[in-house]
Amino acid sequence: MGGVEADTRCHKSRAINYLNYLLKPVADDYLRRTAITRLILTDEQQDLLDATISEWKDACNLSSRIGWDAGETRKTYLQDLAYDTVLEETRLGSQHAILATHQAAAALDGVEAIEDLEKHYKTSRPEFTSNTVKYDTRTMTLFDDGSVSLSTVEGRIRCDLNLPDEDDGYQHEYLTADEWEVTESTLSKRDGEYYLHLGFRKDKPEKQVEQQGDDEDRTVLGVDLGIVNIATTSTAYFASGRELRHQHREFERIRGNLQQTGTQSAHRTIQKMSGRESRYLRDQLHQVANQILEEARTHDCEYIAFENLKHIRERAPPVKEFHQWAHRQLVDLVKYKAEAEGISVEFVDPKNTSQRCPECGHTSDGNRVRQAEFECESCGATQNADYVSAKNVGWRYVRRGLQSSRRTGNSQLALKSGTVTPNRGFVPSD
């Protein structure tokens, strides 16, 4: 939420979580991405941006007070109320004044939503303290030579973006492609450096299932989320969780030792370590998410089916918070990436998916010989336990499709060497 800090006197952290959730962008017909770049600035340009940041915070807080007193959370209405005051009492230009009123309205709307949902919470007026400024296409211009023009309190400045080489930097995908359109962006100052979080959007691709008729077959990729293997697909891709667990334990061990030290230096080291850990884990999960998408593309899947994470927690409360976090992050990354491919991500109840035999359907606790091994008591089939769960997750979504009265085509489960359907059984790949 950028510069918004919704302070609460009662259950502060929970209220802030509500606020962050409620202020997430509303789904629309666009794919949205952010490219982060560092600005190359002269001392004079830095001073102008510092002044603009300061005026922006003042403008947002002015608008917040006006909206709070008037009980107004709608953007256009708060703009009418606060615009003239912002122009009079700050050095911002007209467009930045409008953006500031809209930023305040969004924060106020979030606080109002918290109060509506949680009547006993006592909320206070949102206060803007972060060193950020919003930009849109009227206050910012990107140029083909890798530079940008930004509005400040004293006219515009033009500076270069510190971009990596084209072969290394993901930013070029958005900067050079015609289908990506620049949208609202955010300038932030952190540790003496200035970063531009460039917003881009393009039309969301039509989902593959919407391009097909009801009489066409559709293919499902099942995914099991676990601990030994953080993810396993019905096509026999195994993403080991061993290295993630090892690195997490190492971070926790070092963090514990530093906490016992209790010095200011140790505290700073912990903060740096936390950032490194977060980046490492997210990079690893990105790689796993990319491979899951590759499995879906390779096997022409229109759906990716996951276990419902809520049911996982209910079924296995001992699962550590770290693994719950990793599973949530992984699912979010897959959804994010699948959206760009037109692939639908769906969820099923994981009940008995680890105990049901995919060959004969026999379900029993006794089918799980050990954590990693599955052996059916009825038909004797033996397989990796995570692989069994992945097939059962996908199969459950296939069977859900059979219950639709509108569907005439068959859903099928993607396997390593073919597909399986309720009507035709196993069909080997070409």
Report, as a whole number of angstroms, the end-to-end distance.
49 Å
The percentage of residues in β strands lies in: 15-25%
Radius of gyration: 26 Å
Mean pLDDT: 81
- Pairing-aware structural class of the strands and helices? alpha+beta
Shape designation: elongated
Low-confidence stretches: 1-27, 314-319
Count of strand segments = 20
The largest sheet is:
8 strands, mixed
Give the count of helical stretches: 11
Kindly give the count of domains: 2
Helix content: 40-55%
3D architecture notes:
With 430 residues, this protein is an alpha+beta fold. The protein folds into two domains: 4-203, no CATH class; 208-428, no CATH class. 44% of the residues lie in helices and 24% in strands. The chain has eleven helices and 20 strands. The two termini are 49 Å apart. It has helices spanning 12-22, 43-70, 75-89, 94-117, 171-176, 208-211, 242-261, 264-298, 309-315, 321-341, 385-402; strands spanning 4-5, 30-40, 127-128, 132-135, 140-142, 147-152, 155-162, 181-190, 193-203, 218-225, 229-233, 238-240, 303-307, 344-348, 368-370, 373-375, 382-384, 411-415, 418-421, 425-428. A hairpin with a 2-residue loop joins strand 6 (147-152) and strand 7. Helix 1 packs across helix 4.
